[in-house]
Automatic annotation (TrEMBL):
Signal peptide: 1-20
One Pfam family of this chain: Peptidase_C1_2
Keyword Protease: yes
Family membership: Belongs to the peptidase C1 family.
Matching InterPro entries: Papain-like_cys_pep_sf, Pept_cys_AS, Pept_his_AS, Peptidase_C1B
Protein name according to UniProt: Aminopeptidase
Gene Ontology annotations for the cellular component aspect, listed alphabetically: cytoplasm
Active site: C92, H385, N407
GO terms of molecular function: cysteine-type aminopeptidase activity
Length: 462
């Protein structure tokens, strides 16, 4: 009796499973229709031959109609000198932040050129990020290893990345020094190995800290273990980057050939001399994030490099307003920290970024039609590189038609180290600008005073 009952039940289960497997799968009928949609006619054959024999679809897609249409002349341009080179590192945020204040130093000392030691601030950035990582691990030690926040901390304890507030935090705490005081090393110019080694050490020590807390170790013992781990990090950094100076002497030759007297500084004293108001800065980050309400302030949880430092906080504004404020800053000879999705529609040889520089739709015969909001929400686009915003060209009505970046990829990249981008490209791929709030209008200044909306560390924009 049981056999006759089991057979139809098994048959029914197999039938249900068959239906479940078919739902959403590509069956023979669908595949035939899809195959039939592709016609290898003469035009498609020519494109297929070109693509399959090319080393770069990007180069094949270069839009000839765009070539030579954008020049590198600007009606309004900040007085900047010299191009820096971050080499094979992710320190664009640091180079850009320093590039916006380098002109002030050259003007103050009447010198032809000047650069900061990026290596000095990079040392302290990695060191402070390591400390913050341990603090985050200790604060979340009661959670499981697969907790979303814990997973993110262990996934990337430290890296080269950052934004303007990262430089502000480090410079405020440790100051800055001239380039020759702590020169670059092979490691600081090519950072992948050192960050990888430090991350391995950090993950191992953090795992021990979690186990200590789980076993009810005293706060004193946990702090002692953290201190021991930080000493190890300091040693690794000192061996790879050199040890940061506590004080230094510096002198210079001005444009008239006069050599100054040697003067001793601490790094914080040097910062105070070149920028007395740095710690009480009037700079604010404004951002175009079309996925969120404008004229509201947002703060990303734990997006900083120093435990006691400020988080990444920004005022969200429409592009039209950001452009208006940025123009005012440039006209007043003040460069701005800015960041964008630099890889999009970027003709590196010409040093130009424009909408449809690369016509992928024509060569592939398919549409690419996401707007900025959709690109952000789907992770197709986001800020990937920081540069100094230094120039704007306008039409006869003083409306912007193109802009200019001072990059940190050396003089051989782009237009002798600079990048030109159209106003349309600005709207689609520019994300944030750090600007003196003096240039904001009353509506924006009022919005700045509101309490920030806290965003999680895993937010899609960051």
């Amino acid at each position: 009796m049981k056999k006759f009952i089991l057979i139809p039940v098994l048959a029914l289960a197999c039938s249900v499973m068959s239906i479940a497997q078919k739902k959403g799968t590509v069956d023979a009928k669908m595949l035939n229709e899809i195959r039939a949609s592709f016609k290898l006619d003469a035009s498609s054959k020519a494109i297929q031959n070109a693509i399959t024999n090319s080393e770069s679809i990007r180069e094949l897609s270069l839009n000839h109609e765009k070539l030579g249409k954008t020049d590198h002349f600007f009606k309004y341009r900040v007085d900047v000198k010299g191009i820096t080179n971050q080499e094979s590192s992710g320190r664009c945020w640091m180079f850009t932040s320093m590039n916006t204040i380098r002109p002030e130093v050259m003007k103050k000392f009447n010198i032809k050129s000047f650069d900061f030691s990026h290596n000095y601030n990079y040392f302290w950035d990695l060191f402070e990020k390591s400390n913050l990582f341990f603090e985050n691990i200790i604060a979340t030690a009661d959670r499981k290893m697969d907790d979303r926040e814990v997973v993110l901390y262990f996934k990337g304890p430290v890296d080269d990345g950052g934004v303007w507030n990262s430089f502000f935090n480090i410079a405020k705490k440790y100051g800055v020094v001239p380039a020759e005081v702590m020169p670059e090393t092979k490691v600081s110019n090519k950072t992948r190995e050192i960050t990888s080694l430090i991350n391995e050490k950090l993950r191992g020590e953090a795992y021990k800290l979690r186990n200590m807390i789980a076993e009810k170790a005293s706060t004193k013992d946990v702090e002692l273990a953290k201190m021991t781990a930080l000493k190890a990090v300091y040693r690794m950094l000192a061996l790879s980057l050199g040890e940061p100076p506590v004080n230094f002497t510096w002198r210079f030759k001005d444009v008239d050939g006069k050599i100054s007297e040697s003067k001793m500084y601490t790094p914080k004293e040097f910062l105070a001399e070149i920028n007395p108001d740095f710690a009480k800065t009037e700079l604010v980050m404004i951002m175009n994030d079309p996925t969120r309400d404008y004229y509201k302030v947002y703060e990303i949880k734990n997006y900083r490099n120093v435990a006691e430092g400020i988080n990444w906080t920004y005022l969200n504004l429409p592009n039209k307003e950001i452009k208006k404020f940025a123009m005012a800053s440039i006209k007043n000879n003040e460069a701005m920290y800015a960041s964008c999705d630099v890889g999009k529609q970027h003709n590196r040889k010409a040093g130009v970024m424009d909408i449809n520089t690369y016509d992928y739709a024509s060569i592939m015969g398919v549409e690419f039609d996401m707007d900025k909001k959709a690109r952000v929400l789907t992770r197709e686009s986001g800020s990937s590189h920081a540069m100094a915003l230094i120039g704007v060209d306008v039409d006869k009505n003083d409306k912007p038609v193109k802009w200019e970046f001072e990059n940190s990829w050396g003089t051989t990249a782009g237009n002798n180290g600079y990048l030109t981008f159209t106003d349309e490209w600005f709207s689609e791929y520019m994300f944030r600008v750090v600007i003196n709030k003096t240039y904001l209008d009353e509506k924006a200044k009022k919005a700045l005073k509101t309490d920030p909306i806290l965003l999680p560390i895993w937010d899609y924009m960051f």
